[in-house]
Amino acid sequence: MIDPQVRRELRLLKGYATLTTIILGALAVSAYRQDAPRGRFSEIDVERINVVEPDGKLRLVISNRPRSIGPIYKGQPFGYAGGSRPGMIFFNDEGTENGGLTFTGQRGSDGRYRASSHFAFDQFDQDQVLYFSYNDENGRRRLGLNIVDRVDANVANIYDMVAERDSIERMTDTVARAQAMRRWQAPRNGQPLAAPRVFVGRDVNRAAVVTLSDPSGRPRLRLMVDSSGTAGLEFLDASGTVTARLPEGRRQE
């Protein structure tokens, strides 16, 4: 028979063990609370950072190339796999990609280099409509600000469009595939899938250019200072033919 004193001490030990377990559990949970103390680091090496909402939806991904994310629509991957976009990718309130900052640059074994930087903002449920770009093929470079019209998301969203395109590309009948792709690329409800409207920048001929295009993406007015420093203004028709030029007789570069 257990002595009453021993029984009391055992009860105390059991109570102590239970209380200790509760306290440790509470401390473990509090470590993950939003109001937990912030960490401070002098330096950190990381391959990827995901910034998420309380419900887990992505808002920002910062990553190297191998761990970079592919396109995401409402939390669902589509289009192509990750691993090709080092930089930062932004996401809207629905967990859909809506822009980002990416960059590359390397010299090949032949001594030639390729480099690019891209800072883009996407239309809702669509692709980029405002972006800054730099593309350089061993000195042949184009850089500037671009504004693009996209088909309205209510007419065609990017997820369905990409799924439709991927389905067409899997067709084995080459003639039928080409016909289907032409239909896919055609305007929807009179709206082109994408139409460049404004370019302000520097072209591959080293000219400073402002190009304004019509709703179908056809250049209609071009303001230019060419590589020799000569300024000019050109008006174009829908076929791309220059109909007027100021000053008159100015050579088209």
Structure, explained:
20% of the residues lie in helices and 38% in strands. The protein is α+β, with helices and mostly antiparallel strands and 253 residues long. The chain has a twelve-stranded antiparallel β-sheet with strand order 1-2-5-6-7-8-9-10-11-12-13-14, with no helix packed on it. A two-stranded antiparallel sheet has the order 3-4. Strand 6 and strand 7 form a beta hairpin. Helix 2 runs antiparallel to helix 3. The radius of gyration is 29 Å and the shape is extended. The termini are far apart.
Secondary-structure map with pairings?
Elements: H1 4-30, E1 48-52, E2 58-63, E3 72-73, E4 76-77, E5 87-91, E6 97-107, E7 113-122, E8 128-137, E9 140-150, H2 158-169, H3 174-185, E10 194-202, E11 208-213, E12 219-225, E13 231-236, E14 242-246
Helix pairs in contact: 2-3
Short note summarizing the structure:
The chain has helices at residues 4-30, 158-169, 174-185, and strands at residues 48-52, 58-63, 72-73, 76-77, 87-91, 97-107, 113-122, 128-137, 140-150, 194-202, 208-213, 219-225, 231-236, 242-246. It has 253 residues and is of the alpha+beta class.
Strands of the biggest beta sheet: in what spatial order?
A: 1-2-5-6-7-8-9-10-11-12-13-14
Structural class: alpha+beta
**CA-based gyration radius:** 29 Å
- Percent range of helical residues: 10-25%
**Which residues sit in consecutive blocks of at least 5 with pLDDT less than 50?**
none
**Total count of helical runs of at least 4 residues:** 3
